[in-house]
Every structure is written in structure tokens, then in C-alpha cells.
Amino acid sequence: MLRRELEYFFGAIRFFTRLPVPAWVGHSAEALNRSARWFPAVGLVIGGIGALVYLAALQLWPQPVAVLLSMVATLHATGAFHEDGLADTVDGLGGGWDKARILEIMKDSRVGSYGVVATVLALLGKFTLLAALDSTLVPWALLAGHVLSRFCAVTLLAGMDYVREDLQSKAKPLATRLSIGQLLFSWLFVLTALAGLPIAKAVAGCALAALGTVWLAAKFKRWLGGYTGDCLGATQQVAEIAFYLGLLAQLPG
């Protein structure tokens, strides 16, 4: 059982990142389906990379530079996988007028003006928010932000239908419904990542991330009737930014 779960975990790592995995890890659509609950654990790895790079860079450069280098490290580790999903989703919702046209635009490999603007704003937003945080909180913010945002994307797998019919879609293997038990398993990684943050800030961050996720899910439901792989990437990006916004919020009292 342990070997099987490790295979699911490494399968998620291989699908969502550029990081190497052991040679014995197999590949199948069924295994990738079962790896969905490990999605937040991938965030723990990526957030950990960002946190380590940030802490190392902070010994030599000011905080904004350390934040920038940590972002470069996480983007390199994921291959901008989720940023690409954000760009395609915004292009589709911004330029399409019905489900068929939105899906057609989202499938186009070219990036439109909506997608470019969304990507630039997302990267600038993350940089600005992290650079404005207390320097001691940034490593924990990176860990929690990457884990929680991926959990938010996983919730779409639990409550919505996959809407693409083409079998060649890169996210087709993740067209599965997660059970409550699988969601709770994923939530354990969120609790682990939140442990280093003040409770009030963690709650505010989670609340805004949840709000952003619900807002996006409603748009996906209205315009598409469900989600695509690009929608999962967009949800991760929006939830991550919303979480950092919550950490910076000036709470009363």
C-alpha cells in the first residue's frame, strides 16, 4: 500500500512539475486519477522549493530580490503550468460568447491579450504581496499559498463535472470525482502548511482563497457547465493570490 501511494504521489509530481521522479513509477490514466488527492502535496514540494530559495537569497539580497528569485524557482519547477491555465481560461472567458467558442479559444496554443494581461497581473500581484509581507512570514506564506491554492483547485474535482470531450486533452486523466475522504486527506497537507502562520492571518487568507474559488467555480458553471484543466490552473493562481491578500489584510483589533 505504501509503494502504491508513493507511486500516486510521484505521479502527481511528474504530471504537475518538471521535477524528476524514480524510474519505477509507472504511468496510466487510472493511476493519475488516483493521484489527484496528492495535488496539495505537490504544492508542499513547490512551496518548499520557493521557501528555501527565498531564505538562501535573503542572506545576500534585499527581500524583493529574494521574493523574485523564489518565484523564478517555482516557475521553473512547474514549467509555468498553472500560469498557462490562467492565461487560457481568461482568454476563453474574455473572448468567447458561448461554451463551444470558449472551449475553442482555451484550446488554442496562442495567447491573446486577455491572457497576457492576466498573467502579468498575476505575477506582479504575487511579487508585490510577498515583498510587502514581514520577511519572517514569507517562507510560511509560500508553503501555505502553494498548498492551499492547489487544494482549492482539487475542490472543483469534487463538486463539478469535466466538460471537455476530446481524449487528447492534457487534463483528461484528472476528469474524476473526489470523495469527501479524499478531500479530507488533501486538507491534511493544508493544515500542515498553515502551522507556521498566525491563526488570524491564516484564517483571513483561507477565507479569501475560498471566496475566489467559489467565484471562479460559479463562472465556470455558468459558462461551461463544469471545469477543464485550464480552469484548475486558473483556480490555483487566483486562490494563491487571494491567500496572500488575506495575509496582508489589516484585521480589526
Topology, number of strands: 0
Radius of gyration, in Å, reads 18 Å
Largest sheet: none
- The string of secondary-structure elements, in order, is HHHHHHHHHHH
- Report the end-to-end length measured between terminal Cα atoms: 48 Å
Strand content: under 5%
Low-confidence parts, pLDDT < 50 over ≥5 residues? none
Mean pLDDT across the residues is: 92
Q: How does this model look, in words?
A:
The protein is mainly alpha-helical. 72% of the residues lie in helices and 0% in strands. The chain has eleven helices and no strands. The protein has helices spanning 2-16, 29-34, 39-58, 63-78, 81-95, 99-107, 113-132, 138-159, 180-194, 199-223, 229-248. Helix 3 packs antiparallel against helix 8, helix 5 (81-95) packs across helix 11 and helix 7 (113-132) packs parallel to helix 11. The longest helix is centred in the C-terminal third of the chain and has 25 residues, at 199-223. It is globular. The mean pLDDT is 92.
SSE blueprint:
Elements: H1 2-16, H2 29-34, H3 39-58, H4 63-78, H5 81-95, H6 99-107, H7 113-132, H8 138-159, H9 180-194, H10 199-223, H11 229-248
